[in-house]
What we know:
The protein has 398 residues and is α/β, with parallel strands linked by helices. 54% of the residues lie in helices and 12% in strands.
Amino acid sequence: MIRxxxxxxxxxxxxACLLTEKPIQPRQFYYECPFRCLSANSAGIKQLLELKPxxxxxxxxxxxxxxxxxxxxxxxxxxxxxxxxxxxxSYRQHHLALPDKDDDADSLALACYYFDYHQEPxxxxxxRDLTIVRIRELVLRLCxxxxxxxxxxxxxxxxxxxxxxxxxxxxxxxxxxxxxxxLWGWLAGERxxxxxxxIYKNTVGLGLSDTVRYHAERLCNLHxxxxxxxxxxxxxxxxxxxRLYLEVFHRFGFGERLQAILISQIYxxxxxxxxxxxxxxKIRKGRNSHKPTxxxxxxRRFQKALGVAPSLxxxxxxxxxxxxxxxxxxxxxxxxxVFTRIEVKRSRLKNDxxxxxxxxxxxxxxxxxxxxxVRMKIAAIATRLLFRALVKVIRDEQ
Length: 398
């Protein structure tokens, strides 16, 4: 008899529902079930493991909340499966008819979900190995550091506008490996610059305050943290398992950060393919044409994971397509890549990929279509080319 534990994770606790079979009437069972609320401390972890589950089902609540519980369960030999938020919400409402959403209802729904779909792996979020999980954590940390820096830089520039206006608009970037940007380092007293010394000696400003120096020190610390993360990412991406992926990424001109983002979402590619290891394509009758139409299911799953698969919304005569689901981080990173490596002609890729995407982008813009829409369309086309290139290089290797 299998013991399935549904866990709804909160900030400092979990609601747990242990089942050995799916209840015949889940709605009635909800009022009778002995739910457990376990705190995120040693006592709560001990009580969790004393339940001796065989399988635990959770939602993928980022890397902060579910990580504690999932790690302790995995160390105890418990299989952990993840269910997407959208799938669980639909299942709880339409299949179980449970009351309004609460933690106990979610934990019961998670446990029941396993009994209904345990033989359908695609119903669950893909479980990534430790290297992929670490890459994803580092990528998210870099995004956080970028967000943290922006308000600090804005505050420094506003202060420099009256303290040292000659450098208020200087774009200070990291040019030498292992060194913080020159301006921030000079302001913090960590780097020397005869040029800035000379300019500051003759400035019309009112003089630098300690506040600017403190902010500059914060930026230097953030840049050092970025350097450490980028170095670890570089080492992780050197894993031989990613060699073929990186070869394809270089053809697309993806930078190391974008490479890490993509690897964290699409590795292994086999997760998107059929059971025979080939792209899954099915012939179905077209909804409008009523003719046999190819459905590229593997490609669709791939694009969905990267956040660039359009979803159609139709009501009456109104038909709209928009990008929903998948990784917002990937969607934004691909949009930035299109802007920097395809749209700007002097930086455009000098290969067949750059020619195909560049020509398509120029045509769409010349036709007067909205630029934002054009960029996302090009990103979708690029992921289609990326999927086919990855499939080919992996197949050729085999």
